[in-house]
Amino acid sequence: MNKAENKNKWKEFVNKLEEHASRRDMIVFHDETNFNMYLSRNEGYSRVGERATVALTPSQGMPASSPISSRLHWGRRTTETLATEMLAADGIVSANKLVVLRLAPYSPMLDPIEGCWNVLKAKMCRFMAERKEEFLVRGEYETFCAHRRALMEEDVEFAKSAITRRLVWRMERHCLKASFAAGRGEDMELGK
Question: Which branch of life, at top level (predicted)?
Fold first, then answer.
């Protein structure tokens, strides 16, 4: 059972989205993602009788954001700033006409890009697992960070092939079903 507050926010989002669609506004779904470059180790050191543990922060490594324009950006930016910069740079919209609709909490099912990111990240994880040893050496680069960044950029290029037109259509259809449910005020379950 979803909270009534979240249901109302979902319904409000869907109503605003439908309003823009009825005016034939261009709708661009924009989402950013972080990719965790933390690599687990198979071996560790601990004193006799103690378990080898490491306290980890929620995110290890360098975040990589890549919007629909397929350009890779390193570092942190707000969604609004990144969306405005990318859409204006691509000539899609002038920066002063951009309207950003924020998704309600707990609503990845209303964002078709979210599923695409999951597929992309899964392919990237497989790529990283296959080349784990390369990520642990500096190679010909000045720093470990520079080497990992180069490998990460190669990883993104490799994994982009997972985002096919068919996948995007499937995610759009999934999002549309969730939008109808949200518009009716129904409960929604993540992943269904």
Answer: Eukaryota
Q: Note whether residue 77 is domain-resident.
A: no
pTM (predicted TM-score) = 0.60
Residue 29 lies in a domain: yes
Distance between CA atoms of 61 and 70, rounded to whole angstroms?
A: 21
CB 79 within 8 A of CB 100: yes
Report strand pairing: 73-74 vs 64-65: antiparallel
Give pLDDT tens digits for 94-111: 555 667 777 776 778 888
Q: Contact 175/14 with Cβ under 8 angstroms?
A: no
In a domain, 98, yes or no: no
d(CA 59, CA 41): 16
Unique residue bearing structure tokens 């034939």: 24
Structural domain includes residue 19? yes
Q: Measured between alpha carbons, how far is 82 from 32 in angstroms, rounded to an integer?
A: 9
Domain ranges, residue 147: 4-33+104-183
d(CA 97, CA 79): 16
